[in-house]
Design brief:
Helix content is 69%, strand content 1%. The chain is built from 24 helices and 2 strands. It has helices at 24-51, 55-71, 78-102, 106-123, 128-144, 154-174, 184-204, 209-221, 239-261, 271-291, 301-313, 324-351, 373-382, 390-411, 418-427, 432-460, 464-485, 487-505, 511-533, 539-567, 572-599, 615-631, 642-662, 689-711, and strands at 671-673, 716-718. The protein has a two-stranded parallel sheet. Strand 1 (671-673), helix 24 and strand 2 (716-718) form a beta-alpha-beta unit. Helix 1 packs antiparallel against helix 2 (55-71), helix 7 (184-204) runs parallel beside helix 9 and helix 11 packs antiparallel against helix 12. 52% of the residues are buried.
């Protein structure tokens, strides 16, 4: 019933040091960012050095814009970026203060780095804004926790933070600001308008079913987060962002259902279906208008009422002479579309702030409605406090690497030791292979950049005017080419930037370039060791485990759902089993989604099989199970005849057994054998139970289809009709 419808290669030659090809938009964006960061950095740096002679002030005024502008992927438009930096300033000040006092000893600074690193990475799961500023906040602690231990310089450090952050905010807002990006709300509204037009076309009977189906599927694909800019994805933990994301999921499912129906419903075969389809078209238009802010959100009550009316009258007309089974299947799929429309309506109401609760709808589906934002933050973080979460793994890997880097730099008394941590922070990846690739490129780039910096320091000597003249063009080129060109260009050009900057703060020699090489190599080795020892496979291995755990969690939920549907009532023990299964499925669904989100950011294995597991299909399978668990027991009639109930239990046993077999990744294919309904059973069951029986049949067949798609090669459904 319920339907849903740039790899990194191995470095082989000197050509890998060349900038990677990039789109014009990416290059232009990097150039604009380079201008903003350079202006913000030098506007605070030059006065602090030349007029005030405050080297500590100058250092922080220089690096704060670099931290927030280059090392932190701030999402959104210029105004949104400015607001993100402004909100991060108190946390940055606290971390600078903490690092200043913990720098009294290597052990205290190391322990502080461990706690700060873990906390910040774990807190990044709250949403994209926090994720964006985490590297900058880590850098604030790194800068402050290194010797000399000088609490008396704290006012200068905080003053540098204030000046640097203020200039960053002004430049992000006023100087070549990032343009506004198409919002996810707008995308969902576009998709709902497409659904409304398609439904009207099907009602009029003049639309081409196959063309309409393709248009609907294309509109659904545009709602995927992979096709949405990072700054506008509703991935935050707040209620409105959760609701908007849920509206996107439900809209995609609704569009897929209409696409499946489009070739069959040029002219609806029965009047109740035509009335329901017309009502759904009007509801879609109203919800699109609500997302655009032109009218209030209508809420789900109207669609629920339409479903109630449709469920009461749908069925087989008395004068139907053909096989009623295809008609019942179409009605079941249309009802599933209406159920998805209820979720869309409720989610749109929450996303637009019109309501804070959803009485009458399943609590599990909108559990976040009415909850406070701090509680939702804690729920998000607490869900990742398990070694099976890639967020937890990343936090442990990053915190351990940074703490180890701080311990090594402090114990060996490395000159400019914060470069060790900076190297580990910027070159660490979530897989050992990706870390090794970045380290190789960065090592070559640092070597070349250090040679160039050493030549500059030897030739220019103590002529600070030369360094002052070179700083601006060097920063412009470094912050433009570095992010586009990759680790080699980034590390090489950044070496020139720090050399020209430090030469103006204090007298330096060519040994500064030597220290840069040693520090970056040390940080790279530490990052590589952590990448090899701490979950070296990244999200690939965890995706396999989390998908298996998700399949194991959904299996009992499938059984409980069908049992409730077949018996026509819900015993207290069944309700308790269903609640426990729902909690487990939702928990592992969140963990699997986090694994999949990280998996998309990692380079694929060199010899990945083309017919391997489809992890997105595995997530869609669990989503379909959850939707069925919410809505299948809704339409209850009398208990089914014994042969129909026996068929339902046997079909459920087959799907559950196949689900457990599929959890044994890698699997050599899964075959799901679903027997047809008993002969003549549809004529022996009164309405609405006959329609409800077909609802279960369609749902189980759809689950079987999703399951075989998720497992991959060698999988098939025997006896299916999708």
């Amino acid at each position: 019933m319920w339907h849903q419808g740039r790899p990194e290669g191995r470095a082989r030659s000197w050509r890998t040091l060349l900038p990677a090809p990039s789109s014009r938009a990416e290059s232009v964006g990097a150039a604009r960012r380079a201008v903003r960061v350079t202006v913000a950095a030098v506007a605070g740096f030059y006065p602090a050095v030349d007029l005030l002679d405050r080297p500590v002030f100058a250092l922080y005024a220089l690096f704060i814009p670099v931290a927030f502008g280059v090392m932190s992927p701030l999402p959104g438009s210029g105004r949104r970026r400015s607001g993100t930096v402004l909100r991060a300033v108190p946390a940055a000040a606290a971390l600078i203060t903490l690092g200043t006092y913990l720098a009294a000893a290597t052990w205290s600074a190391t322990l502080g780095m461990l706690v700060v690193g873990f906390t910040l990475v774990l807190a990044a799961s709250i949403g994209p804004r926090v994720t964006g500023v985490v590297p900058a906040l880590q850098l604030c602690y790194i800068l402050a926790c290194f010797p000399p231990y000088a609490p008396g310089t704290l006012p200068d450090r905080l003053a540098g933070l204030a000046v640097g952050a203020t200039l960053t905010i002004l430049c992000e807002w006023l100087l070549l600001p990032e343009p506004e990006q198409p919002s996810y709300r707008g995308r969902v509204a576009d998709a709902l308008e497409c659904a409304a037009h398609a439904a009207h076309g099907l009602l009029q009977g003049g639309a081409d079913g196959r063309e309409t189906a393709e248009r609907l599927r294309a509109a659904g694909r545009e709602l995927r987060f992979s096709r949405t800019a990072a700054g506008v994805r509703p991935t935050g933990a707040g209620a409105r962002e959760r609701a908007l994301a849920q509206a996107g999921y439900a809209t995609r499912r609704f569009l897929d259902l209409l696409a499946a129906l489009a070739p069959l419903l040029r002219a609806p075969a029965d009047l109740p279906s035509a009335m329901l389809l017309s009502g759904l078209a009007a509801a879609c238009a109203d919800e699109a208008a609500a997302l655009r802010g032109t009218r209030p959100a209508p809420g789900p009550e109207r669609v629920e009422e339409m479903i109630t009316q449709y469920a009461a009258v749908r069925g087989v007309p008395p004068d139907l002479r053909e096989d009623p089974h295809p008609l019942l299947r179409r009605q079941s799929t249309l009802l599933a579309a209406a159920v998805s429309a209820v979720t869309v309506s409720a989610a749109v109401s929450l996303a637009t702030g019109r309501r804070r609760s959803m009485p009458g709808l399943p609590l599990e589906q909108f559990w976040y409605a009415g909850a406070s934002t701090p509680r939702l933050w804690w729920v998000r973080i607490a869900g990742h406090l398990t070694p099976r979460s890639v967020v937890f793994q990343n936090a442990v890997r990053t915190a351990t690497g940074l703490a180890l880097a701080r311990l090594v730099a402090g114990s060996l008394d490395l000159s400019h030791g914060f470069w060790v941590l900076l190297g580990m922070l910027t070159l660490g990846r979530t897989t050992a292979g990706a870390t090794w690739s970045a380290v190789r490129s960065a090592t070559a780039g640092t070597l070349v950049g250090s040679l160039a910096a050493g030549a500059l320091l030897v030739s220019a000597g103590d002529m600070t005017e030369v360094y002052a003249a070179l700083l601006v063009p060097t920063m412009l080129v470094a912050f433009w080419v570095g992010p586009v060109g990759g680790p080699a260009w980034g590390q090489g050009l950044f070496t020139l930037v720090v050399s020209t900057a430090f030469a103006q703060i204090a007298p330096v020699t060519w040994q500064l370039a030597e220290a840069r090489i040693v520090d970056v190599l040390t940080g790279s080795v530490i990052g590589l060791v952590c990448g090899v020892l701490a979950w070296p496979a990244g999200a690939r291995g965890e995706m396999r485990r989390s998908a298996a755990a998700l399949f194991h969690a959904t299996a009992p939920l499938i059984r409980v759902t069908v049992e409730r549907a077949a018996t026509g009532h819900s015993a207290p023990t069944t309700r308790a089993d269903a609640a426990a299964a729902l909690r487990r499925t939702r928990r592992y669904w969140r963990i699997a989604h986090a694994s999949y989100a990280q998996l998309r950011t990692e380079p694929p294995p060199r010899h990945a099989p083309e017919d391997g597991p489809d992890w997105l299909a595995a997530l869609n399978f669990s989503s379909r199970v959850l939707v069925g668990a919410y809505w299948l027991p809704w339409s209850q009639g009398t208990a089914w005849p014994s042969d129909a109930a026996s068929w339902a239990r046997e079909a459920t046993d087959e799907v559950v057994a196949s689900t457990l077999r599929a959890a044994q990744f890698p699997a050599d294919g899964v075959t799901v054998r679903l027997a047809p309904l008993p002969p003549g059973v549809l004529t022996r069951i009164p309405a609405p139970s006959v329609s409800h029986l077909v609802d279960v049949e369609v749902w189980l067949h759809a689950l079987a289809s999703d399951l075989t798609t998720a497992v991959g090669a060698g999988s098939r459904v025997e006896g299916g009709f999708w």
